[in-house]
Amino acid sequence: MSNNPSSRVVARIQPSALIFVMLVLVIGALLLASNNIDPNAGRRAQFTVTPVDPFAVSQYVSWKSPDGFVRLEHPNIWQPQTSQTNPLTYVLSPANSSGAFISIQMRPTSAYLGVASTTTPDELLKRNFANRAQDLPPVTTKAVSVGNFAGTGAHYVERASDQSTNQPLMVESELWVVALDSTHVLVIQGITETGNWARMQPIFEHITGSLQIDSAGAIKAMDTTFPATPAATSTATPAAAGTAPANATSPATAASS
């Protein structure tokens, strides 16, 4: 997504052992981590036009990614974009608003450093939140699914920063890791400022509920784009959280490049 609009709120991500969280969706920036899935792997798109209410959705429209691997329905006032720097990464963000964003990314599990290729979605999320600050609200998890594909989702609140003022703020996020098969994952993340999740949730649910993945085509593309990386002999330790670069990698968006 080097249509990359600047992001006002930047969620922090810990480098993770999973590429899937290369979450770093550049344009909406979402998850990133090169060694560990970081809950704040995304970045929200910001526009300079008159802000609009990102949650005032009147209708949903269909969208198919240019590569043909993703089909979904999104709010008519949101814009879908594909990343030109992070393959198999897609970001949905409100037009003329920096209020929220949703990112979608697919990676082979082996792309994440220090993670075995058959590591499950549940274990990937546990690794991602293993070193979470104790003063933050607890992470809640649940079983999730996208079509016939099952996985685990986490809901959490995290510290971030306003890129325009460098002031700290809190963001609320939903992070899903879904298995496309035993060695490839789909990572979905929705982020908005704390207090807005109740309005964001119906949009997140509609998008994930309408999401269709051409798994055969996507898996073939993943294996071509991300050669298998030998897993480290020890568990990777999440790096200190910080503002995720637009081209970083994380559980939801990508692994080491």
Describe this entry's structure for a reader:
By secondary structure, the chain is α+β, with helices and mostly antiparallel strands. The protein is built from three helices and eleven strands, in the order ββββββαββββαβα. The protein has helices at 121-128, 197-210, 215-225, and strands at 9-11, 60-64, 70-75, 78-82, 89-94, 100-108, 140-146, 149-162, 168-181, 184-193, 212-213. The strands form two sheets. Strands 1, 4, 5, 6, 7, 8, 9 and 10 form an eight-stranded antiparallel sheet that branches. It has a three-stranded antiparallel sheet with strand order 2-3-11. A hairpin with a 2-residue loop joins β7 and β8 (149-162). The radius of gyration is 16 Å and the shape is globular. Residues 1-48 and 230-257 have low confidence and may be disordered.
Keywords:
257 residues, alpha+beta, eight-stranded antiparallel β-sheet, three-stranded antiparallel β-sheet, 3 helices, globular, disordered N terminus
Radius of gyration: 16 Å
Parts with pLDDT < 50 across at least 5 consecutive residues: 1-48, 230-257
- Give the amount of beta strand, in percent: 25-35%
SS-derived structural category = alpha+beta
DSSP summary: helix tally: 3
SSE string: EEEEEEHEEEEHEH
Largest sheet: 8 strands, antiparallel
Query: What is the averaged pLDDT score?
Result: 75
The gross shape turns out to be globular
Oligomeric form: single chain
Number of strands: 11
Distance between the termini: 16 Å
| Percentage of residues in helical conformation | 10-25%
